Fold:
Amino acid sequence: MIKNFKKNEINVSEPFLEGTIETDEKDWEFLEAKVEDFYKSNNISEETIEQFIIHNKQVKNFAIKFSEEENFNNREKEIAVLSAILHDIAKGFGEFELHGEKGGEIAEKILLEMGKSQGLAKSVKLAIIRHMGKEGYPTRISKEKYGNDFEYPQPATKVGQLVYECDILTQLTPEGFEKILHLRKTDKKNIEEDKKTASGKGITENEAALLSVLKNAEESYNLIKIKPIKKFAKELWEKIQKKYPNSFINF
Ligand SMILES: [Fe+2]
Ligand SMILES: [Fe+2]
Structure:
């Protein structure tokens, strides 16, 4: 399955951005509840589910805000919002590296079961498959696992790009900091990594975890391209720099 992610092996576009909208806020609420049920049925801890729900809500609200600021039509906004709600549905169990691909497939299935069109389901699926990023954390660990030429398929439309940027924008918010710190403390690999950093730099493990969160935030800030999102990210990044002394960020 994962070999499909090698460079240039996926060549699909997202051709369904036209059309009338098929969902309303009730559907969105239904889907949010569905994501929560899905987490519960996969035995994810309550604390982690709580963090995921906060994260998904944040991405959804950013998708609404920036779809409007970017003058998306209603159909484009709908695809962005549905993708935001469902983008991490496959996270927290199974292979982390595959949560985009798996999540896209699950989302497509759910939308088809709700009676939504093939076009809508496919557009959402593709945006979700393409939310993993080019240089961020998922790509880094996937390169370690699958080799250096590994690359996730990149967003192919302005809608996919917006969903991707709304997702990484959360890494610059206090809620995002809390989520990543929580996940770092529950993931074996991250715990090891923080231990190593702590002993190498002579800092505590908590400081090492915070350092990696700050690095994520800076990386996300640099990856954001869409103007209004960049402006918002800049304000957040400046707040972070004020809160944490530069000497610490550049440790
Ligand atoms: Fe994700
Ligand atoms: Fe996410």
Q: What stands out?
A: The chain has one domain: 2-249.
